[in-house]
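1st attempt posting a full record on here, be nice pls
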Amino acid sequence: VQLQASGGGLVQAGGSLRLSCAASGRTFSNYAVGWFRQAPGKEREFVAAISWSGSTDYADSVKGRFTVSRDNAKNTVYLEMNSLKPEDTAVYYCAARDRTVRSAASYAASYNYWGQGTQVTVSS
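the predicted structure (as tokens):
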């Protein structure tokens, strides 16, 4: 499956952005999708994930501010980001893994497919 992340940009603190992850190539509904981010000089970290059945997981740092959802008819997963903070600044990546994978959603190595990333910059 091929993934294309989009929707990043520059926003002021307190603002909102919606990222999209468009998939192609295989039956998208069979895949769980995760969002990860990497800030300059920092390791990649888990942000949120949605399973093939629609259950969701979030990092503590984004709970209550970010919402992940999916539209299988459009082969797209969304990350709605509200109340953005400067510390949310990073390149955001979406990734996909088969529905049969049992590892924790936050385990990046369990994802087989990765998009190219989209830059999110939050100014103070």
